[in-house]
Amino acid sequence: MTLLHTVNKSPFESNTFDICLGYAKDGSTVLLIEDGVYAATTGHKVAEKIKNASGVTFAVLGPDLQARGLENKLADGIKVVDYEGFVKLVAEHDSVQSWL
Amino acid sequence: MSVKKFMYVNRKAPYGTVYALESLEVVLIGAAFDQDVSLAFIGDGVYELTKGQNTKAIGQKNFSPTYAALGDYEVNKIYVEKESLEERGLTLDDLQHLVWEDEDEDYAEKDSIRLVSRAELADVMAEQEIILSF
């Protein structure tokens, strides 16, 4: 069973991202959406946590990243998806856990 | 009407919640009353000022250009907390360049953003008469 986790809160203002990481097993995907996209940028402690979570795939919703003006701060190794890509990820996984 | 020292404290990222937009609207309304206004951006509030915001694909209004108009309303004390930028891997270069024109100096263009430490901002906050938090 593979899970798609979505996180929509900033990792700097909420522990949602950390909780999610604790539950993200190898082979699962974490998709960062809305204010969750701030985790996908470089130069801070959260970026290190993503780097160290080797068995987990990270993706970020492009429209939310663009809205926040952070496309050029995107960390390496994080896949950018559009809304279609979001749907595709949902279809590819067995179920979805939307962390709120 | 006596002039009071107002500070608007912005602590939320834009778009995910409505706080940032609401704060900006209150600042603009308040600007009509000729008060001594300061804005503080701390925590995720610093994300409100990033340049290059493009909200087309999320179907929300991009209100970030409005920050550049604040100088015209004599809102020109914009404090950005250094620690908050650093914690998020940001520098002043990632933010909009906000300016105002000083009519006492032949409309010379001056920077509105003041990069300050948490301790310095705490001092500024302590001098305020009215603090509104978003």
Can you walk through the features of this model?
The complex is a heterodimer of chains A (100) and B (134). With 100 residues, chain A is α/β, with parallel strands linked by helices. Chain A has helices at 16-23, 45-52, 62-67, 83-92, and strands at 3-7, 29-32, 57-61, 79-81, 95-99. A five-stranded parallel beta sheet of chain A has the order 4-3-2-1-5, with helices on both faces. In chain A, helix 3 links the parallel strand 3 (57-61) and strand 4 (79-81). With 134 residues, chain B is α/β, with parallel strands linked by helices. Chain B has one domain (5-133): Hypothetical Protein Ychn, Chain: A (3-Layer(aba) Sandwich). Helix content of chain B is 20%, strand content 24%. Chain B has a five-stranded parallel beta sheet with strand order 6-3-2-1-7. In chain B, strands 4-5 form a two-stranded antiparallel ribbon. Chain B is globular, with a radius of gyration of 14 Å. The model of chain B has no long low-confidence stretch (mean pLDDT 96). At the A-B interface, helix 3 of A face loops of B.
Oligomer: heterodimer
Biggest β-sheet strands, sense, barrel of chain A: 5 strands, parallel
In spatial order, strands of the major sheet of chain B run 6-3-2-1-7
| CATH C-level label of chain B | Alpha Beta
Instruction: Give the overall silhouette of chain A.
Output: globular
Q: What kind of sheet is the major sheet of chain B?
A: 5 strands, parallel
According to DSSP, the number of beta strands of chain B is: 7
Please provide the count of β strands of chain A.
5
CATH superfamily of chain A: DsrEFH-like
Can you describe this structure in just a few lines?
The complex is a heterodimer of chains A (100) and B (134). Chain A is an alpha/beta fold and 100 residues long.
Comma- or semicolon-separated keywords:
heterodimer, A: 100 residues, alpha/beta, Hypothetical Protein Ychn, Chain: A, five-stranded parallel beta sheet, 4 helices, B: 134 residues, two-stranded antiparallel sheet, 3 helices, 20% helix, 24% strand
